[in-house]
Amino acid sequence: MWVPLRWAPSTRILLKPGGVAEVCALHLPGSERSTDDLVEGVELAMPPEMAQQMLDPTIRTVTF
Questions:
Q1: What one-character DSSP code corresponds to residue 5?
Q2: CB count, 10 Å around CB of 11?
Q3: Alpha-carbon torsion angle 26, 32, 34, 40, nearest 10
Q4: How would DSSP label each residue in 18-61?
Q5: What are the backbone angles phi and psi of residue 12, rounded to the nearest 5°?
Q6: Whether the Cβ atoms of residue 24 and residue 46 lie closer than 8 Å to each other
Q7: Predicted pLDDT at 1
Q8: Which domain holds residue 36?
Q9: Domain for residue 49, yes or no?
Q10: At a CB cut-off of 8 Å and minimum separation 6, what does 53 contact?
Q11: Which of 6, 7, 9, 56 is the most buried (most CB within 10 A)?
Q12: For 11-29, what is each residue's pLDDT tens digit?
């Protein structure tokens, strides 16, 4: 998803200590946004890799 300005500070806080912020690759094509609209540091996630990370108990996933 595109990160609205009101979420940008939270996203930047997560990125500072080495966090990773990714947007579902399935969401962008159905929206009016593109990767150019993402907050700096937010990347495009690929569904297979994201699913694998979500199932890994050693990786903390936060969604919003």
A1: T
A2: 19
A3: -100
A4: T--EEEETTTGGGSS--GGGSPTTEEEEPHHHHHHHHH-TTS--
A5: -65, -35
A6: no
A7: 40
A8: 8-55
A9: yes
A10: 59, 61
A11: 7
A12: 677 777 777 788 877 777 7
Domain presence at residue 17: yes
Q: How far is CA 7 from CA 3, 39, 41, in A?
A: 6, 10, 13
| Residue 62 within any structural domain of the chain | no
H-helix or E-strand spanning residue 9? helix 8-15
Provide the number of structural domains found in the chain: 1
Asked if 23 and 43 count as a contact pair (C-beta separation under 8 A), the reply is yes
Residue 10 phi, psi dihedral angles, 5° rounding: -65, -40
45 strand-pairing partners: 24
Checking 48-52 for CB contacts under 8 A at 24+ apart, the result is 50/22, 50/24
Determine whether 3 is exposed, middle or buried from the number of CB atoms within 10 Å of its CB (0-12, 13-18, 19+). buried
